[in-house]
## 1
Amino acid sequence: MSTPAATVVEAPAKPERRVGCALVTGASRGIGAATARALAEDGWAVGVNYSRDREGAESVVASIEEIGGRAIALGADVGAEEQADEMLAGVADRLGPVLVLVNNAGVTSDGLLARLGDEAWNHVLEVNLTAAFRLTRGVLGQMMRERFGRIVNVSSVVGLRANPGQANYAAAKAGLIALTRTVAAEVARRGITVNAVAPGLIETELTREITSNGADGLLGAIPARRPGSPEEVAACIRFLVSEEASYVNGAVLPVDGGMAA
Amino acid sequence: MTTAIKDQVTERVTSALVEFGEEPENVKPDSRFEELDIDSLDLVELAQVIEDEYGIEVTDADMDKIKTVQDVADFVSQRQS
């Protein structure tokens, strides 16, 4: 393998107002919705992607508009290549080049591996990992031209440690970490950062049932003894997107109340 | 006409290479990319510049054959004719 020649790159100049937008996938609720709001508070025009929950996405858009921000809802199953491509073209036309991409959309289809079907494997890999690859590929050109870009991949604590029953999800989330690190090394000298967050148990609609069903054992595994909130994850993503995080690249930030410590 | 296109492409490629960090005086039509301070990411971006600005699809196989600034000018001129 040849190593690219080492060229000294100047540190970025004092940030000017960026003309472009942020695209957050799976943003109709949970971590994605909180992230869309947080980025809007920082002045980004936000593409709020949803797959099925149009109402949820529109309410996120409305809450952003209420604080004087700009956002649009974008319906697309990111696991379907054509829909993802159309979404990218549409958001760039309406909000300008995508300079921030948060790959948050995720699905689970749990089961012990001995009984895990190909469909459950492929679907989870497609939405959680392949979609992030395709969207990243789709926006890198715009970011390279601008000499600025922020990509944050929402991985998971299960990408770092075992969670029986989630081999497909864990493989996808661990894959996202490897994708994050590799792309970071490929494009760092263009002012683009690629980082990941690895949330632990976060209280969303998906996990509320688990946490309210007296999951003492589960909470016992978390040093903080409580689930996190979507806003606590969004705050970390907001930092990784900020100009202040310009020298953080290829990092994986656990947001898990100490679970992976 | 062809010469004009080639000159224009040569100028554009030279400015792209300078933007990638190469010294202007080092970039000559027969400069080989491997001798310049140009790496694989720069070549990817160069292919993108050609695609965006000249409306030509550039495959990996095309890029494998393009070794010099002159090669880019010849490639664009040939595809546009």
## 2
Amino acid sequence: MIRFAELLDALLFTPSRNGKLRLMVDYFRHTPDPERGWALAALTGVLSFRGAKPAQIRALVAERVDAELFAWSYDFVGDLAETVSLIWPARPGANRVPDLTEIVAGLTEATRGSVGRLIEAWLDALDATGRWALLKLVTGGLRIGVSARLAKTALAEFGSVPVEDVEEVWHGLEPPFLDLFLWLDGKGPRPEIGDRPSFVPLMLANPLEAEDLERLDPAAYLAEWKWDGIRVQLVGRGGQHRIFSRTGDDVGPAFPDIIEVLPPDVVLDGELLVMRDDGIAPFNDLQQRLNRKIVTPRLLRDYPAWVRLYDILFLAGEDLRPLPLTERRRRLEAWYTAEPRHRLDLSPLIPFTGWDELGELRDGARERSIEGLMLKRADSPYLAGRPKGPWFKWKRGALTLDTVLMYAQRGHGKRSSFYSDFTFGAWRGTELVPVGKAYFGFTDAELLLLDKWVRDNTTKRFGPVREVTPGLVLEVAFDSVHRSTRHKSGLAMRFPRVHRIRWDKPPTEADTVETLEKLMVE
Amino acid sequence: MSPRPERWLYPTPAGLYCEPGDFHVDPVRRADRAVITHGHSDHARPGHDHVLATAPTLAIMRARLGEAAGGSLQPLGYGETLSIGEVAVRLVPAGHVLGSAQAVLEYRGSRIVVSGDYKRRFDATCAGFEPVPCDVFITEATFGLPVFRHPPDGHEIGRLLKSLGLFPERCHVVGVYALGKCQRVLTLLRAAGYDAPVYLHGALATMCDLYRAQGVELGPVLPALGVERAELQGRIVLAPPSAMTDRWSRRLPDPLVAMASGWMSVKQRAKQRGVELPLVISDHADWDELLRTFADVGAPEIWVTHGREEALVHQATRLGYRARALSLVGFEEEGDVGGERMEA
């Protein structure tokens, strides 16, 4: 448990992806089974045991610590798990330090009545970092900035295998993952998936650059709309059904309405959307459905889910991935014609003869549900990862707005000495109203200049944030703009980035909030 | 019968004032006569006419303040007694930084200990805290909340060395306060067997020289200025906290930002600061040390000065002491970042 706690602590503070990877690889290398397997389960969020509610933890600490002292401390620290871990009065030598395996086993067997005493005994035996990790573990949600995908990437690096291979076997495995580690240690075969519904690594597209078009033969490509939803893989296998996200996370529990219509013995690739009678709902509506632990009937009614299919990878046990796209498409259409069902439909192919014609179609599509176009080579097999060449995404031209820099915040890691996170505003009368935040889109050389400008034009400082004179215009690019109650302007941009720094433009000539409102697609 | 303590030693706008001796302890405004507990600039302020302190503290004041250190500077060795009017003044080690002292004041059979800032754990750079039995013990409360329980120093230094092993291409830059923390971290590194050169930000050089001149061994240190970037890979650089997020740090190769401070035990705060490796190394007593000290000095009465007074007064009262907060102002300025004293 001490090693695991130290790992969580280090992961919490390490901002860089590479740093986190190295910490995890080091942990997997130096920690024995089954401990590392339980840690992996915790990192990837697949542990299931009786946790504890914050109220139970509060009750435990109330038995040990004066109420007023606790209140002052909580007020100062601001986080329950951390306050309890720091304030817990040590009982030196009270208990042997538990290992993670014991803790998982204990929690798995615990009843609602016994879990409190169990946690109490462990708190007595651990140091502050250990207590913190334990409380994070039992109250759910580690929140240390590690996704399941990143943990799998670390596994791949640790075992020197492609991450796609890890993803492919992942959903057939159970904690503490002994066969997985045996394989990654080079001491055993790659685990067999059997007929469990496991994730098939996705084929991803590259962004289309302007110069790409010149060398691509339009006759060799198929075109589809790029829908503004999230990519999912639908899996039916061995009588079970799963919905996996792009990164292989099982999102099925949040979408029972899709699960219930899934066919057996097929693996499909498509776009998850919220669909109403009047068509595809805005992305914001889909977000209401994501990451829900409890799906209410009301949520199902107000935000009905839908999957628009564009590929088929397996059918009745047959691996279709080596087939060319045209053949897979034919199989997909044949299968859907034979087994049409509610909440699933096919993403149509867009007929075209040349790039100019397609470009016009792309620019003409102003519907909010369309992000642009997908171009896929007709003869492309389905390959894991992001091979360069067969598939492209051709996004619709971005929207832009001339805004005024209002606040800058210091970045993290390599950027911790730079003001690199920028909040910008647009005019409403004579007042500047913040409309968004961007922290990329500029070069390193431009960042140096921006940083200097911020330091030279600071009017107020709030910790890591500086307020600046309204004197610099940033041309901001973004994919779309939506209503939002979270911002003072009532608007939220999607995917904003600094497009150009307009050193030349006087701030009074920047755009207004009204202009931004007009860019909104209702 | 002895005089009531609060009648002969009490807070004034200029700081704690000893009436029968007509002097202040660590005055925050210019005073005729000042007894200074230690060299941190919120305690040792410039411009007093007469200053009484230990010789190392006077040396620190001269190094930092030059002429403004005071009109006349009078050293008093640990354990020696000086009579000022009817008051006997004695300086006793406080274990905080080099030269730090508790001022033990006696007047007509009543004894008050003004402890200044102190800690109880071992520190190779200064004499250890000596408990002195007294009627009133005046304590700081920088870490006066039960969430502050500093782990062993060796454990924290071990984490720094472990990180150096895991990220050998990154320069590990450790934020340290120039007086005390810097030298303490150096001696802790040496005690842990780290004997490679440690590189110093320019602002730390003066105090390190002074410590060495006072006989404190720091091992090989080099200025960070002018060193090739590549040479600093996998090295430890010490810098004042303010330099870490400043443009200065850009000369370092892929710096991993560490900070040595008692505040680092609160994760969210360390994270907000952009610290990647928080090291809980403090020159102040933690919660347990504060309470243990009250028991060790056996004082029936505890006065609490700067820091988190309310919680400490509350707990001292629960433990049966007569405890109250002394509202002294002016002890949170230098090195203060976001309301926290960074020398802590």
